[in-house]
């Protein structure tokens, strides 16, 4: 019996030693610094990712992290269910344990910036300049520099950046973010172009984008977009000038002081749709999906005129006489 007890004690001691050794190895691995080849590496953790999947994502970024070991570390520490999706920045000096803790705390390094529909390039740059975590490469705001940096194949950059909320990592450049917005716009535009209505007066998708930008600036009322698009399309088909104030304002540039005067309507610029027929040479603002859809699927109407009613909506007319009555009512304030 004594021999059996001694054997049991020996085996128990051996198990304790092995567990302690294993624990020591695990502790050393969990607190050993990860090998980064750069000062930091950005990693995006998709929603629903487990620790093993995250380790594989980190491996793809060039950092050696054993998936099975990282998974067991998360389970044993009970942090596996607390990992939060988002963008994380791994830095030199990080360990598997510090990375796991940061992800469980949701200490993300990603930021967000919203580009709003209807904004001009000038407004987009104003908000990008205000982002302290962006690297500002396009400081001159020179259009040629923007076109070169983003790979745009057209002489104008206006309207080519899709309005959306973009997530980015600290250290991303303004040029990189604009490339994303540009590529997103191209994908959305070409997909919408393939599903367009027949018999529209556009030679290509860019012209549809130009008209969509006018629709975007002419109304904030979603229900009116299709009818407003129909007015401009009817005018294009009839060879009539579009006569839309937002294009005149855009052509005035820094000369616009908040008011548009008769002389402004008569001063010719490439964007003055009172002095020139057809579409202007470029969009005048960023375009929402709704405005783009309206330009490619306009309402079927015989309208050639519309007037803003003052409440965000518009009233439409087929004839000049009817339009003049609407102007008298809603612009001049005369009773019908």
UniProtKB/TrEMBL annotation:
It is an enzyme of class 4 (lyase). Keywords: Cell inner membrane, Cell membrane, Cell wall biogenesis/degradation, Lyase, Membrane, Transmembrane, Transmembrane helix. It comes from the Bacteria. It is a single-pass membrane protein. InterPro entries: MLTG-like. One of its GO terms (cellular component) is plasma membrane. One of its GO terms (molecular function) is lytic endotransglycosylase activity. Belongs to the transglycosylase MltG family. This is Endolytic murein transglycosylase. The gene is mltG.
């Amino acid at each position: 019996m004594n021999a059996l007890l001694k054997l049991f004690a020996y085996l128990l001691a051996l198990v304790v030693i092995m567990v302690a050794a294993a624990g020591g190895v695990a502790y050393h691995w969990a607190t050993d610094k990860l090998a980064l080849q750069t000062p930091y590496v950005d990693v995006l953790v998709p929603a629903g990712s487990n620790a093993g999947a995250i380790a594989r994502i980190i491996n793809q970024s060039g950092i050696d992290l054993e998936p099975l070991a990282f998974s067991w570390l998360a389970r044993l520490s009970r942090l596996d269910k607390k990992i939060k999706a988002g963008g994380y920045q791994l830095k030199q000096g990080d360990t598997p344990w510090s990375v796991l803790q940061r992800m469980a705390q949701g200490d993300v390094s990603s930021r967000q910036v919203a580009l709003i529909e209807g904004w001009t390039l000038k407004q987009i740059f104003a908000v990008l300049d205000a982002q302290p975590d962006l690297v500002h490469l396009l400081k001159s705001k020179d259009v040629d520099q923007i076109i070169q940096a983003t790979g745009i194949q057209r002489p104008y950059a206006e309207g080519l950046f899709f309005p959306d909320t973009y997530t980015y990592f600290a250290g991303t450049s303004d040029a990189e973010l604009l490339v994303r917005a540009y590529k997103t716009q191209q994908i959305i535009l070409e997909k919408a172009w393939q599903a367009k209505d027949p018999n529209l007066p556009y030679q290509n998708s860019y012209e549809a984008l130009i008209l969509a930008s006018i629709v975007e600036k002419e109304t904030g009322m979603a229900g009116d977009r299709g009818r407003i698009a129909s007015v401009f399309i009817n005018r294009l088909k009839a060879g009539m000038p579009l006569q839309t104030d937002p294009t005149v304002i855009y052509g005035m540039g820094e000369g616009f002081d908040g008011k548009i005067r008769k002389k402004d309507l008569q001063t010719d610029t490439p964007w003055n749709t009172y002095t020139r027929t057809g579409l202007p040479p470029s969009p005048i603002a960023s375009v929402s999906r709704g405005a783009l859809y309206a330009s490619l699927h306009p309402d079927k109407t015989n309208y050639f005129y519309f007037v803003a009613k003052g409440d965000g909506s518009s009233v439409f007319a087929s004839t000049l006489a009817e339009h003049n009555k609407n102007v008298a009512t809603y612009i001049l304030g005369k009773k019908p």
